[in-house]
Write a structure and sequence with these properties.
The chain contains 18 helices and no strands. It is globular.
């Protein structure tokens, strides 16, 4: 038997399932918007770049959610706070469909960002504290593949249902993740790595004073990672529709293809990180992404663009597949829910201008989205290489208390 699959209990499998679905459905709600930027802009009589601020606001408010929900999870337990968070992002995602105008739309997406920000850190800590240490690489890749899986679901919904239910109907589907709360309530126990006494033993100020160097490093790394991810995802459907003239079916189909690549990449490099180390796996994925990015951004025709998109997401999300295990292992024990989620989402905050940046670059260069895509993706990949090589690693650190 493969070591990563040895010694699993039924409860551990349910914990991984719940955390995977939590991140998948969170991402599903987020990525619905990247397919309908044009439609929302048309309905509200606004520029495409103005509506892109909804993506920026969602990303910008995620650190607040990561910190608030993460501290609650460290203090009161992973399980109850995860249920609260999933319920909130589901309701707010569905409320997007009811927005009467652009301002209300932006406010709802900002509030959605707070709820969205809380899920990743809680799910990652709950999972890594619950599974056998030898399984962390595999589970890290699986957990992170929930993000492109959510993108994949959004792609399928767009390709199959958009013509029938429109953009508002798509967002109404965002209420479905609330059903996950029932699954967590029935099947998921509290984390074996959580301790109420340990969580209360250190204040936020104390943790920051003790671990500020690690926090600054992790924020810088996550900033580069988020530009790497969002720089290759957020405006790509717009690039396919506007620059290449593809319709909803072709755009959605290509999105399905590259999200399959993303999920495979996360699993492959996540598993590899258990054998060769977290940093080496990240470096390998980032290096492979650099030459692939030219086919992804400058390919011509459906087949080359689909192939380039598959390969770039295999590499980008391959690097990301290592991150849940890597960040949780590096995190201080008393803040294992708050620390990884907060530094991750602070990186998102800094990178939250990506959609506006890339659409603005394209609009100022005659609609050349290829230039906007390659400049951000390649720069982020190079920064990841440097920071990862210079940083620490804590593969295999002990987490469970019982």
């Amino acid at each position: 038997m493969i070591p990563a699959f040895e010694g699993w209990t039924p409860v551990q499998k349910k914990v991984v399932t719940a955390s995977f679905l939590g991140w998948t459905l969170d991402a599903f709600d987020y990525f619905l918007l990247v397919f309908v930027l044009d439609d929302v802009a048309r309905e509200f009589g606004a520029a495409r770049s103005a509506v892109a601020w909804a993506l920026a606001l969602t990303l910008a408010l995620r650190p607040l959610g990561a910190f608030v929900f993460g501290r609650l999870a460290d203090r009161y337990g992973r399980r109850p706070v995860m249920m609260l968070d999933v319920a909130l992002y589901s309701v707010l995602g569905a409320c997007t469909a009811l927005a009467p105008g652009l301002i209300a739309f932006l406010v709802i997406r900002a509030l959605f960002g707070i709820a969205m920000g809380g899920e990743w850190g809680i799910g990652a800590s709950l999972t890594m504290e619950s599974v056998p240490p030898a399984a962390r690489g595999l589970v890290s890749g699986l957990l992170q593949s929930g993000y492109p899986c959510g993108y994949l679901l959004a792609s399928i919904v767009y390709a199959l249902l958009y013509d029938h239910i429109g953009w508002r109907g798509m967002f109404l589907l965002g209420l479905l993740p609330a059903l996950l709360v029932l699954y967590i309530r029935r099947h998921v126990p509290e984390s074996p790595g959580w301790s109420r006494d340990r969580a209360r033993s250190q204040t936020v100020i104390g943790l920051l004073r003790q671990h500020w160097r690690l926090a600054l490093y992790a924020i810088a790394l996550m900033t580069a990672f988020n530009f790497f991810s969002h720089g290759t995802q957020d405006v790509y459907p717009t690039f396919l529709k506007v620059q290449h003239g593809f319709d909803a079916h072709v755009t959605g189909s290509i999105a399905v293809i590259y999200n399959v690549g993303a999920m495979l990449g996360g699993l492959v490099f996540g598993v590899a990180s258990q054998r060769i180390g977290r940093r080496r796996a990240i470096v390998a994925a980032a290096l492979l992404a650099l030459p692939v990015s030219f086919l992804w951004a400058f390919g011509s025709g459906v087949v080359p663009l689909a192939a380039g998109a598959f390969l770039i997401q295999f590499c980008v999300q391959g690097a990301w597949g290592v991150i849940p295990a890597h960040l949780v292992e590096l995190s201080p024990a008393a803040a294992r829910a708050a620390f990884p989620g907060t530094v991750y989402q602070l990186g998102n905050l800094i990178a939250s201008s990506n959609a506006v940046l890339q659409t603005s670059i394209a609009e100022h260069n005659g609609g050349n989205y290829s230039l906007a895509l390659i400049s951000v993706a390649a720069s982020a990949g190079l920064v990841i290489l440097v920071l990862t090589l210079a940083g620490p690693e804590a593969r295999g650190t002990r987490m469970a208390l019982r």
